Structure formats: C-alpha cells, structure tokens
Amino acid sequence: xxxxxxxxxxxGVFMAILTILGxxxxxxxxxxxxxxxQLLFALFGIFSISIIYKGIKESVVMTQEGRQDEITxxxxxxxxxxxxxxxxxxxxxxxxxFFASTIIYIPAFMYFYRYKKVPIMVMSVAGTLVFIYLVxxxxxxxxxxxxxxx
Amino acid sequence: xxxxxELIVDGLFNFSTILALIVGVxxxxxxxxxxxxxxxxxxxxxxxxxxxxxxxxxLTMLTAIYxxxxxxxxxxxxxxxxxxxxxxxxxxxxxxxxxxxxRGLKALGISTISSMMGGFVSAIFLLILAPPLAQxxxxxxxxxxxxxxxxxxxxxxxxxxxxxxxxLSAGVFGLIVGTIGVDIMTGYPRFTFGFTSLExxxxxxxxMIGLFSLSQVMIQVESMLKKDDxxxxxxxxxxxxxxxxxxKLIPTITRxxxxxxxxxxxxxxxxxxxxxxxxxxxxxxxxxxEEYGKGSLEGIAASESANxxxxxxxLIPLLTLGIPGSATTAVLLGGLLIQGxxxxxxxxxxxxxxTYSVILGFLIANILMGIIGLLVAKYIVHVTRVPSxxxxxxxxxxxxxxxxxxxxNMFDVYVMVLFGLIGYFMxxxxxxxxxxxxxxxxxxxxxxxxxxxxxxxxxxxxxYYFSRPLSILLMVLIVFSFLSPILMKKLQAKGMVVExxx
Lengths: 150, 502
What we know:
Radius of gyration of chain B: 22 Å
Strand content of chain B: under 5%
Radius of gyration of chain A: 23 Å
Order of helices and strands of chain A: HHHHH
Shape of chain A: flat
Strand order of the largest sheet of chain B: 1-2
Number of helices of chain A: 5
Number of strands of chain A: 0
Largest interface: A-B, 57 and 58 residues
Oligomer: heterodimer
Shape of chain B: globular
Structural class of chain B: mainly alpha
Number of strands of chain B: 2
C-alpha cells in the first residue's frame, strides 16, 4: 500500500518551522518589543501541532482508501506558470518601463491562456493602457517606472 | 446640525461623488455578475482608485461596489445558472427555473427590486442603529481596544474557514505580519531583515490585492483548459414586474430584509447564510411552498432581499466598533483607514459630515442599483461571456498598478506577488484569507492595547481586566465567538434542508 501524505502535514510543518525561526529572531529583540511576537508565535506553534495532528489522521485515511491528495504537483503547474509570468512582468516593469512591459505581458498571458484572437488582444492592451493613463497618470499623478526605453 | 446638513448635501451632490456612485454601482454589478470575481476582490482592486478622491466620494464608491456586487451575482445566477457570488447560490435555484420557463426577465426584475429594497432597509438600519452604538466606543480604554481586536479576529476566523483552527491560524498569521516594521514603542525594527522598505510595515493595500485578486487569477488559471458551456437563457417579456406580482411579494421582501440586516450585524455571518435563512423562512411562511425550487418568485425575492440587506447590517459593527462583519467589510476597513478615518464615536461626531454622507450615499447607491439594474441587467449578463483569458491579465495589470500607486514603490508590487502566492496556497489548503487582512489591520491596535494595559494593570493583569465591566462583556463575546461555529452550523443546516429538498 502506497503511503499518502495529506497537505495539512506539509502546511503544519511549514508553520512549525516559521514558529521556530520567528521565535529565535525575537530573542535578539529588546525587552518589550519581543513580548507580543513571542505570544503570537506560541499560539502559531500550538495551531501548527493541531494541524499536523489532523493532517496525520487524514493521511492514514487517505492511505487506507488509496485516495490521492486534492493538491497535486500536476495541478499546481498552470497556476505557478501564471505566477511566473506575472513575476517576470513585475521585474520587466522596473527595467523596460510600465507601458512597454504591459504591451508585452497582456498578449503573452493571453497566449499562455490559449486565447489567440489578435484583435481582442490589441483591444485589451489598448483599453487597459488608456484606462490606466487617464485614471492613474492624468488623475492621480502616479509616476510609473519609465524604464530604459523612455 | 445645519452645518452638518450643508456638508452632507455638498459632499453628496457634486460631480465627483455622483460619478463615483455611478462607477461603483455599474462596476459592482459587472464584478458581481462575473463568476469567480467577488465583492471583496472588487473592493480590494478598486481601493487604489480612491486615493486621490475626497473621502465621501471614495468611500461611497466602495460601499456602492459592495452592495451592487452582491446584487450582480444574481444576474448570472438567474440567466446562466452560475452564481456570480456565493450569496446568490440560493437565487440560482428558482431563478434559473424561471429562465427555463421563459420568465428569466421577470425573475431578473424581481431580483433587482428585492435587492434594492433589501439594501435600502439595511441602510435605514445602519442610519438608526450606528450612532447610538458608536457611543459605546467612548468608554474604551487600552484593555478594551486589545479585547475588541481579539474579538474581531476570533469571530471572523472562527466563521470564515472550514476549520476553526485554520481560521484562527490565519488570524494569528495576520497579526504576526502586522508586527513587521519599527516597533513604535521602542523604535526597534522587527523582522525587517535589513530592508528599509519594511520599516514602515507591510503595506495593507498590496497585501489585500495579492490575497484576493492575484490568488483568484491563479485559481481561475487552474480551470483554463475546461470548456465553458454556460448558455444564456431565452429572454422574453418585461423586466418590470406587474403590481399584482409585486404586491404579493411585499411581506416576503420585508421579512427577508430584516433577517438579512440582523444576520449582517452578526460579525462573520455573510450574505450566503442570510440568503439561505431568508429563503427558508419565506418557504415556511408561504402559501405555496410546493412552488419553491420550481421557479418561485417568492424564493427569488426572499434570498435576494436578504443577501443585500446583509451589506448595511455588516457596516454597523464596522463603523461603530471597527469589527468587520464579513471579508468585504474587512477590506472596507482598510479603505476607511487609508482615508484617515478611525471607526468609533469620532466617525459620528468629529467626522459626522463624512460618515452620514457615506451612509446616505450607500442608501442612494441601493436605489441607483435598482434603477440601473432594471435598465441594463439583461445586457450585463453578456459580460459573463468575456473569456477568463482576457480578464485574468487585465486583473494582474490592475493589481500591479494598484499596489504600486500606494507609495509609488516597486517593493509593494513584490509584496503583492508574495501575498498572491500565500493567498493561493491558503485557499487551496482550506485557510480563509480575510482573517489575515483583519490581523494585519488590527495587529497594531491589539499590541498597543495589550502593552498599555499591562502597564496600567501594575502587575495584577487578571484583576484589572475583570474589574472593568466592558472588558468582561468583551471576554464573554470572545467566548461566544468560539461557540458561534456551532450556532452557524445549525443555521446553515436549516438552509441546507431547503437545498436538499430541491
């Protein structure tokens, strides 16, 4: 029988690691500043144990039933790819400037989403940029990064 | 008094506020009608637009988005059997049956008028109940501020997640994130890891946008390969119900509106619970309970008036005590703080002009929502046909712009991306994201209240807390909030009985 591990176990372990690292960090803080974070990490640690315990119980049931966890690496691929594209976009904003990177990002994301109607792509880019220009630049005077192109 | 009236009239009836109302109402309806986009996400995404507005126009727009998005959810629920928001899931039962029977427009008309009336009644509740309740906050001192923050957090955490422990963990996580930055009492930079951008703490708006908007895009991407086969039903007849039809619905709408407003006042109980309770009670009182689930106009009126009545009800604990009644009001609290307004008695004294203008603006937004809804609802449903592939990148761009605009700083954009990732994993693993936002907002208040009360207690902390009647009341409420999931499960079970019947 293949052993299954419920996602709550991973979440609980992650919370426990965060608790340990956070608590260690509070030891370097002056008296007074450390008290509230220590209290919070203590609570977080207790909750992490409870979540790990629940996760282990779920894992046993999953193993017995031969059931897979609802979160799989395969299922995470597309959302992570989308996040990756968005991250690259935010980095490009700094170097290429907001408008140039948005002109690249919107069609690129649409293509990734398997949406290939070029006129709609062009209209989406133009509509979004006009809206942002009128509201954020003209109205709110937000100075977006210009980048190397402008 | 006369001065305040003048301020209200001036604040409400000017070009920018009227424009904000129209944008808020139509924008909210569109956001609500789009399955997957919620009122919370709409408010989070549009908060940056309010930076440059005066507080009346900005906050009126946000409350208009809130109420209109709840109504907008019913449009897609009735016409394509896909609830735009969880609050309109109940409406889909009878609404879509009406569409199949060729009465879709009639159902839409009933839904519009019921939503408008529910929202209107809740605005009246807000106008009458909020000012006296706000007086309570005058009696608050350090221990009460600490306890009110804990109460707000426990109630929303215990009700907004599948598991209470997960809800509370999310709340504590928010509080931990709230400790990042320079400690105002000692000046020590906590958890900043040398980043000067973190010394002011994590910016609220980028965190909210990441948690609600970017994470939603990631969730939508999961189903990008699935084929969308929703078909807009046949639309015939008039959207305006006859007087005879409407007359029969008045008792149902009145009852459900009151139920909705009361449920809204209970922190943590949202429009979804209210619509089921309203629907169930309406069925109990109905002369034709057998029609429920088969296209009953009464059923639509009951659920729609109840879920919109929640909006005004949920604003009561928010404006008076700073306790948000739902995820959307948690985000609205952020919008309030950004405008420099602190919930409590000052909202009804020092800032009375702004507060009453916003409440009256909310009331007008509900009426406007009814008028615009009757005119354009059948067209708005076509917005639901906009492919996710087009919407998703635009949401990401707006998320980046909104996060950047708060401090004109790219660091906030990276914070938004990080919180998008955190929000996605939280939602996938059964953690609610609203308590994180609340923890982030209430964290500083909780900590300063806690530390100041320790000083004031002079060693006898328990004795000090138990010597204050308001503190005792708040502690009782905190205990109640731990027990409330049981109560809510009973309320939901009541609703589920109706669902199972159908």
